[in-house]
Amino acid sequence: MSDTVPVLTIDGPGGAGKGTISRLVAERLGWHLLDSGALYRLTALAAVKHEVPLDDEARLAEVAAGLDVVFVAESETTRVLLEGEDATGTIRTEQVGDAASRVAALPAVRQALLQRQRDFRQPPGLVADGRDMGTVVFIEAPLKIFLTASAEERAHRRQRQLQEAGVDASLSSLLKEIQARDARDMQRSVAPLKPADDAITLDTTRLTIPEVVDRLTELLTERGLAPAT
After folding, report:
1. Distance of alpha carbon 23 from alpha carbon 10, whole angstroms
2. Torsion angle of C-alpha atoms 127, 181, 86, 10, degrees rounded to 10
3. Is 143 in a helix, a strand, or coil?
């Protein structure tokens, strides 16, 4: 049954807008949503919480396999509970993001989370947001998008997010962090960040969020994967 359920994969670097775009497309279509990055962030957070070193691959894989996680869909966001505690804000910090990027480079961790991600594929459809959704997790997906934007634009977006949350952040520091994370994600030996061969690359540097959402829903409709909205 699950193999016939349509999947839209949205891959790309951090700050390209994948999370917001994926949530809005899923909401518009009434589809399920997989935030794969949250699973890696939660693995990193759980590891820190239980004092598991971020270079202990075997123990980190055990943490990933045993994650006690609940996603609660709400009107403008998805609340994330880790071991019964709200971790929605914590997993979005730069520190957890950096730790998640390190954890995600470990083959045993990626393998531990692979089936968990595939289990999100349920009717009527799935929007899968991540870095290797189209190249590894859902290689047979009928529509794959690689969402990107310049590193400078992504740093500006992140700074605005932090400022709205009342957090001061240096633009130059954010840019360096984004560039370092991009390099690490693209150079890792397992499931490196790159567009799938059959993916459509969409640069969002000069596009608004509604424009991107409209374009993706149009593509789904054109391919007969979703009804016109």
Report:
1. 11
2. 0
3. strand
**pLDDT band at residue 73, thresholds of 50, 70 and 90?**
low
What is d(CA 196, CA 134) in angstroms, rounded to the nearest whole number? 6
Average pLDDT over residues 179-191: 86
| Mean pLDDT along residues 38-52 | 95
Q: What three-state secondary structure class fits 202?
A: strand
pTM: 0.83
SS3 2: helix
Percent of the chain with pLDDT over 70: 98
- The model's confidence at residue 127, banded by pLDDT at 50, 70 and 90, is very high
Average pLDDT value for residue range 50-54: 96
| Eight-state DSSP code of residue 66 | T
Cis upstream peptide for 124 (omega within 30°): yes
C-alpha to C-alpha distances, 168 to 28, 83, 91, 158, 163, nearest whole angstrom: 33, 30, 18, 11, 6
What is residue 91's DSSP assignment? G
Strands 200-203 and 143-148: parallel
Torsion of CA 111, 113, 118, 119, to 10 degrees: 130
Say whether 201 sits in a helix, a strand or coil. strand
Three-class DSSP category at 146: strand
Q: Which residues contact 95 (CB under 8 A, 6 or more apart)?
A: none
Tokens describing residue 142: 């009928």
Give 123's Cβ-side CA count (13 Å radius).
Answer: 2
Q: Which position has the token pair 């075997």? A: 58
